[in-house]
């Protein structure tokens, strides 16, 4: 078929000659009948006779005789090579030849067939208007691409329809390469039911390659071709074959090596075989006996030893040669310096005092302290002790132990030598009072309590606690006799009493703490005696207030009954709520809460529905929060951190402040987490109170320290005050507006009153001014003032003493 196509291509010049001869006869015979003006008829005649294409072809090739001669020579050669070709067959296949001429087998310009290409280009341009011609070939632009059509649009103007551009290797696209499948991430299985496998970049279909027969597939599976993988190329749909280089890279990756490493045959050395490793083998690698040379002394080593010996004899090697001192040499640059002139103002270095008899390991008896003196010395602070050691007696020097403060004393001695003054300086005449900060005068800070106006007597034993009702009319006290007494503040008369404890004098419980419920409604008083907490409604208020208080206490019984019926609380409750007996109800007792451990401190929430109690001996149940409206008790902590001393609610935030012996921790009840830890620096915290503003804290301790904490400033105390001679028992802020006062009560029988003004400006610190020292309570059995409380509105202060009295100061 290829030879026939070649012959057909070479026959085109012969046909052109025949057409030229026909054209000459036409011109001689029929040119006179056709007018030159009728160009349409002439064009139709030429197209009908098939002469237009041949004429145009002849015109394009007529100017090049060399090309015609070259084509004739090529034709003669091909006729000799293809002698079996029959000319009769060619003449009978004119229509097929014309179809072949219109195909892609027409030679290009490079092969010397320019005329034929132009002829085919002009013949491919169709000028139509339905079935009629609308233009001549001479009117068309010869630069139009093949296959262009000219049609009439809706306005009657010609419109060119260009053929679709199919890129091929003959185009000027230098990037044209392998036909890529542009279906993206779509799997090929989507096209299983279609004859194509995707689309190329121009949107043309990529047809599925013809599948081999079953026998070919069997042979391919048996005789695997080189580079066969069994995979299908996604882009073309054909079998994926790998080159030798790609197969080598895959082999390297399978062996766990870098893909671009050299092959083993290219390596200089063979791979190492680890014959000797850390693994202990059972059988030896070789069972051959040890050779004799391993047991014969080495001659080479003997020669080496003799060589060393000869060098030692000749002195070239010196054994045990002393090493040169490489340490740097120092010179005393002050050796020849003249002694410095002694200045009269110079001071000699301080000297240690000579040892005394008390520092001896066997001192006289008068220098040895008694057990009471030794215990007192241990309880004192380091700065308060008269000496740094305690004299002890030993029978001999051999039994004297090492001095535990030796390093500490040597360090202090070095500091004395380093920081000691070397020159006398003139003393500055400065008044010490001028160095003190200027504080306002107490006269300018009035009002504040100065004198004792009323004494409340009636308790037998100590008065441990007291409280002022929210209305400011009644004073409640509790003492060692187990009674709770209500006093009228202005007159000092005892109005009502109830006995809730057996009394400490008879070995029973004393009333340790009592607190009034906040708010004017109800008039409920909570008092703790031993393990029981009594919720009282004293009959000192009007009937409506008393009934309201009893209703508040009785409302929780129904809720507790519902919980018990539904079985909500399966575990043993931390506290037990019980109803009072008839006799106790007549005395004003509304409910009794039993917690299991003696209650030492109590505090109410500002809304009056919750109150917290502290039992230091209760371990994980030291702190309990009680809800009045539901008669429910719950411990907020699973495990207590240290011995808890007191607990308070924040004035307006959902925070709970818990004080242990040395720390104060702040907990967020809504988030159920600890948010801060305060470090007062005292040994044992006795009590603390929070400022009404919520940003300052007052802490009292048994080591005679009164600490002021600014929560916005630091976790350490802002100011430490030492005005008491003995332990501080109670501290309290004045909760009224416009009364920046606070007080501290101590076992020395005094009450210190201070002015503490707090401003909202964070750049200004609190102003603390001591105002007055109140004395009136008698110290009994080493105890003085046990509790202190402020009036809600007035600058009146109430105190409870160990002498069995309660006092009001105004």
From TrEMBL:
Cellular compartment(s): Nucleus, Nucleolus; Nucleus, Nucleoplasm
Keyword DNA-binding: no
Sorted UniProt keywords: Nucleus, Repeat, Ribosome biogenesis, rRNA processing, WD repeat
Taxonomic superkingdom: Eukaryota
MF annotations from Gene Ontology: ribonucleoprotein complex binding
First and last residues of every WD repeat: 456-497, 785-810
Keyword Repeat: yes
Protein's GO biological process: maturation of 5.8S rRNA from tricistronic rRNA transcript (SSU-rRNA, 5.8S rRNA, LSU-rRNA); maturation of LSU-rRNA from tricistronic rRNA transcript (SSU-rRNA, 5.8S rRNA, LSU-rRNA)
Main location (coarse class): nucleus
GO cellular component: nucleoplasm; PeBoW complex; preribosome, large subunit precursor
Homology family: Belongs to the WD repeat BOP1/ERB1 family.
Self-association state and partner proteins as the record states: Component of the NOP7 complex, composed of ERB1, NOP7 and YTM1. Within the NOP7 complex ERB1 appears to interact directly with NOP7 and YTM1. The NOP7 complex also associates with the 66S pre-ribosome.
Record-linked PANTHER family: RIBOSOME BIOGENESIS PROTEIN BOP1, RIBOSOME BIOGENESIS PROTEIN BOP1 BLOCK OF PROLIFERATION 1 PROTEIN
Protein name: Ribosome biogenesis protein ERB1
